Each structure stands twice: as C-alpha cells, then as structure tokens.
Amino acid sequence: MAEIRVADISRWQGTIDWNTFKNHIDAVIIKATGSDGGLYTDGMLGRNRDEARRLGIPRWYYHYKGVGSARDQAAYMLNAIGIQAGEGIVIDDENEGKVNVGFIAEFTDAIKELTGGLINVAYSNLSRFQGVDLSPIKDRNVGAWVAKYGQNTGTIEGAGAAPGGIDLPIIAWQYTSAARIPGVSANTVDMSVFYGDVNQFLAYGASGNVPQVSPPSTATPQSPGNGTYTVVKGDTLSGIGAKLVIDWRNIAATNGIVAPYTIYPGQVLKIYGGTMSQTVTSGGGSYMVVSGDNLIGIGQKTGHDWQEIAKLNGISSPYTIYPGQSLKLPGGGVTEPAQAQSTYTVVPGDYLSKIGAATGVAWTRIAELNGISAPYVIYPGQVLKLN
Q1: pLDDT tier at 99 (50, 70, 90 boundaries)?
Q2: φ/ψ bin of 194: left (φ > 0), alpha (ψ from -120 to 50), beta (otherwise)
Q3: Per-residue CA distances from 295 to 76, 88, 125, 236, 289 (Å)
C-alpha cells in the first residue's frame, strides 16, 4: 500500500522555513480556524496557506470544533481559507469525551452544501472514536484521521501498531506529536501517515475553486487594533512574545527587526494574522483554556506559578487540560503578568522548544546559556538560566 508523510501545523510551529520544510514532507494539514471559546482564525493560516500554495505542497486544512452551530463553524472556516482546487477540509473533534457524531454529520452536510460537494475528513484520537455509533458519518463517506502515539518518540518506530477496530475507514494515522522536522525551529511537529499516494490525498480536496463563502452572522468582527501590538516602556520582544503566546522571533522577522533587537515605546509591531492572546478578566479569578495551552504557558500569561494553578484545580501529572476548561487562579483574581523570569525548573515532559514557547526565550538561546548541545538532553529538576 502506498503511504505518504503528512505534517500538521499551526501557529505553534512559528515562522516555518518552507523551502527547507517541503523537502521532508509529502503533504501538509494546516490549522485554519477554531471555535473553542468563540470563532477565531489561526494566526499563521495566511502565511502557511500562501507558502504551501507557492510551493505546490498538497494540503488540507482543519477546524478545531467548539461552541456554536456546525453550519456556522463550517461557513467561518471556508470564508477564512478561500478554498482552491485540490484543497481538503478536516473537522478536528477533541473537546468532548467521545466524538460528537451528530455535529460531524451536520458539519459534513454544511461543507458539502457550501462547496458544491466536498466531503471532509474527521480527526480525533482513537479512544474518542471507540464505543460510538459512527454510522451517520460513515454513511456520508467521511474518512477517519486517527491519532495513536504509543511511546511518542517522534518516529513511527516508537508508535506501535497502527490504529484499527472502529467502524469507519481509517485513511490516516497520526503517530507522533514530537517529530523534529528541518525548517521548523519553534516547536515539534505532529506527523501522520496517509494511506495512499499524493493523488489519492488530493482526491479528498475540492474538484474546483470554491466561490467565496460569507462568514456567519454570529462571527464577531475583528477589532481595528487586532494584528498589531504597541510597545510600552519596559517591553522586550521575548516579553511581548510571552504575552501574546507567539515566538518572539516571529515578531522580529515580521517587523524586520534584527540583532540587537531594539524596540521603543510607542512602536507599533505587526503581529502576523492577528494577536493570539486571550483576554483574562481581572475580576473573575479564572482562566478559560484555549487550544494549544499548557499549564506553564498559562502561568506565564496570568503571572501565576503553574504548579499553584495545578494544585488549586486538582490537576496532577501528566497535567492534562482541555480547551474550554475553566481554571481557578490563585488569590481569587488575575495579577499583572510577571516580570520575565531568570530561571526555569524542568518538569517531566519538557523539551527546550516547549520551554522556549512558555517563557518567550528562544530555545537556542536557552541551550547556549546553559551549555547544552545536540542532542539537547535536559532532565526534570534541572534549573535552566533564561538570561
């Protein structure tokens, strides 16, 4: 059976060097939109879409299911992308204990109607597909893209046997969330095997260009300031990156800022695709988890120790949280963001790029400061210098 290598990416992979990246994948699945906490567009959709198109990389896009009607979410996604011939659609269903078959069926019907016949793919981990009557989406010819990691070593060798045992065709297997792919420096990459060749991958895409779809009336217009950040006294690029949950190097590259990375109060910085920060209400004493969050990053955004947040909410190792979850914050309120920390203590599951994303300090800089070289081994309890 033919197989191709497929990477799925979002803003968490930062500014990708696509000319290098393309040499290590056969196809790509790009995060487009989501509705966990309200409709939004991934901050790197525009760049990732345009680069994949420029290089002719076969591509699908995915939408992270959340609040709101299935039709509104489908319309919002299609409007954000502007689907071209051969481009496919995935519905990512991870915000409930099991896949919501009714929602996926409604989403599929909406995509088919709005595009003139396109059938989407459904993604979730294996356990969420199990124990559910999948016949309504099977009847709609929806294929399953299934996540099953095993040891999650970054390679397929550590992933164990391929998934099976569900009453739905499994067309792709996401076998790791920890792959290191040249061209991506900001984070690891989720990698999958698609069971077929490139032409079969493209067959899941639109047969022709899809007319522009209007966004749903429920979509909240972006505020005039979205997509920029105005520097204030005391700001640094790494600090701004931590506040906006964006790799500071992406901000520097977008604004043509080079070493020694000087910025000044009042300077307006472009943030590609809009800011990614969540507004944290000062009076509520809580934080709503969004896709891609982890406790360390939430601690950075809210100015609280992540371990205190975990303890307050009864969360223990492996510290699993999920989009839409409301977390209590220590002290009953939200403090101002903490000043840039000078050290970081490694916890189980950490790696340098993850720490870099959480602290706003480039992982290469952390490695340099602490004398860490390839293969970049760190261990729980290790105290790393950040400046």
Answers
A1: very high
A2: beta
A3: 29, 33, 21, 23, 9
The domain ranges of the chain are 4-202, 340-387
pLDDT of 117 strictly over 90: yes
Q: How far is 165 from 169, CA to CA, in rounded Å?
A: 10
pLDDT band for position 278 (cuts 50, 70, 90): very low
Of 292, 361, 216, 289, the C-alpha closest to 44 is: 292
Phi, psi of 5 (to 5 degrees): -90, 130
Least confident piece of the model among 243-247, 283-287, 305-309, 378-382: 283-287
Instruction: Give residue 335's pLDDT band: very low, low, confident or very high (50, 70, 90).
Output: very low
Does the pTM surpass 0.85? The reply is: no
Architecture of domain 4-202: Alpha-Beta Barrel (3.20)
DSSP state of 335: P
Q: Which residue has the tokens 């490694």?
A: 346
Say whether 359 sits in a helix, a strand or coil: helix
Instruction: Tally Cβ neighbours within 10 Å of residue 164.
Output: 10
User: What is the chain's alpha carbon radius of gyration, rounded to the nearest angstrom?
Assistant: 21
Residue 8 has pLDDT above 90, yes or no: yes
Identify which of 75, 360, 114, 101 has the alpha carbon closest to the alpha carbon of residue 217.
75
The letter for the amino acid at 209 is N
3-state secondary structure of 201: helix
Please determine, for residue 221, whether its predicted confidence score (pLDDT) is greater than 70: no
Which tokens is 272 given?
A: 């590609």
Contact 57, 90 (CB under 8 A): no
Nearest CA-CA partner of 209 in 119, 87, 40: 87
> For 340-387, CATH number?
3.10.350.10
